Description:
The chain is mainly alpha-helical. The protein has helices spanning about 5-35, 60. The protein starts with a helix and ends in a 46-residue tail after the last helix.
Amino acid sequence: MDLNNSTSWKLRAAARVSLLALVAQAMAPAFAAAETNSLTTITPIKHAIVIIGENRTFDHVFATYKPKKGQSVDNLLSKGIVNEDGTPGPNFALASPSSAEDDFADKY
């Protein structure tokens, strides 16, 4: 196989791959439209993503979340630690802080 024939073959293959990529990119919106949700909504928002930063726990974000009927959640409200308005609940003492001390000489 000579060098010119090999280079020509590689160029034709690269052109075919590029053409295929362009066709796939052009058809992508059609496939995306076929997957749309048939339910109508007030806004065009379909998904909500919650990003919780460092040192944020479930209790910080969902402490007073009330689940729908038939569902349950283990949070501060369900344990009675806080009331719906965020004030201390009847079991507030369950939330008392605790600590650990290292009494070993190796400091580990």
